Amino acid sequence: MLSSGPNRWRDSILPRKILFDVCKRNNLPAPVITGEDTMKIGDNIFHLADFEHGKHLSVHVGIPIERLALYVLHKLRLCPEHVETRPLYNLLQPEIEQGRLELFVDVFPKSQGPPGLPLVIQPRQPKPFVLRCIIWNTSDVILQDVSIMGEKMSDIYVKGWLSGLEEDTQKTDIHYRSLDGSGNFNWRFVFNFEYIPTERSIAIRKKEHYWSIDTTETKQQPVLNLQIWDNDKFSADDFLGFLMLDLNRLTKPAKDADYCKLSILDHHKNSTANLFEMKRVKGWWPCIDVDEHGEQILTGKVELELEVVTEEEAQARPAGKARGEPNENPTLQPPKRPETSFDFISSPWKTWKHVIWKKSKWYTIAVLCIVIVILFILISLWSIPGALWTSILRGKPTITVSDTSNKFPASLFEINDKSTLDHAHSFNDLPEDECQESEVDEQMESEEETEENDERLLHKFSLEFMEKVLDCYDKVDEHGKRKRR
């Protein structure tokens, strides 16, 4: 690798970076640099002296570690064709780059005769693929919020996208009021992308800038990004955890949530597989976050089902996004969530039933009883003075009734003061002139006139009632028996 001169290394990516990327794409152990001229890949150890022994090197050679990386690429036959990238200039504007030309040059010595037939060097065309990701459940998600009754809870939802295709971000519905970190979704993400199997990368075509005319093709690793969030009504949503899955190097998931640990994501301790070869996988993966000390912590677990199909297979076995049509392969039923999972704004009755009443029903009953007693006392205090004052103004005659015997109903009445009846008759026997004068005086105010009319009616009713009582009393002897005529 030359650092200067006409044959210097012109690629924007250095050999060491190419070696790391190639090892990652081919599921090989990552290179470990143990010195300036030593590198280890898996069980193989490479020394720079083994490759340059007996060679007369130019003074323009590059740094040792880059030369060693280039030698390793050639030895392992992992190095793609070296593509030269040359800038293009115009004489009218000699210092302004007008574009770039990518090419490579093959030099054949004449002594070996004419070269072979020309090869087709057209870039490999990506093939359309579809990734179907079903979010079944979540478990042990950290609880971020506190309800009005002091309970820890989270309103969980999951969103995901493929690296480089962030504009196609999808998210599930919300599992409200999760009290134990579990969530039920039965929700399907569907991502369409173009994949190059030989290079194990996704081809992404997009404009670099808004004003760009042509699209630029870039290649990235097929990485699925999933994030768990806590939904908030009146503030920004809270981030709970994330999961990144390389579809070329997919770690084996756990079959049960209890066995889902952080160690599952360790590529060095666990075997990996290519989802494009497996086609389908299902299980539990851990979601992580980074604490204040920079260490990874477990913030939740998610149950996924991943399936990669070609465009032809997707048309033969269609499946819609979320739970929409066509809801097939497999059919997703609405999740069976507990009764406590609801939106408190759209379901006030459930909020009262499952939150307020469940936690404080005895306090609520006690408060209602106290309120009823207070209202009864207030109504009594408000009505008793009016009734007493009305009785005083009306001057009702007092009749004492005692129970002298249980043998005959007429004996239930006993008049203790007969002067009351005489006083009532004498009131009606007043001269008409005096009654008229008193009525004229009392008619000065409308309220007093109304009270007097009511009083006269009451007196007439009392007289009729007492006359009937006296008639009944005359017909009964001192022993409470009826007298014979």
Automatic annotation (TrEMBL):
InterPro entries: C2_dom, C2_domain_sf, C2F_Ferlin, Ferlin, Ferlin_C, Ferlin_DSRM. One of its GO terms (cellular component) is membrane. Residues 111-261 form the C2 domain. Keywords: Membrane, Repeat, Transmembrane, Transmembrane helix. Residues 432-454 have a biased composition (Acidic residues). GO terms for biological process: membrane fusion; plasma membrane organization. It is a single-pass membrane protein. The chain crosses the membrane at residues 362-384. Residues 315-339, 432-455 are annotated as: Disordered. The keyword Phosphoprotein does not apply. PANTHER family: FER-1-LIKE, SPERM VESICLE FUSION PROTEIN FER-1. This is C2 domain-containing protein. It comes from Didymodactylos carnosus. The lineage of its organism: Eukaryota, Metazoa, Spiralia, Gnathifera, Rotifera.
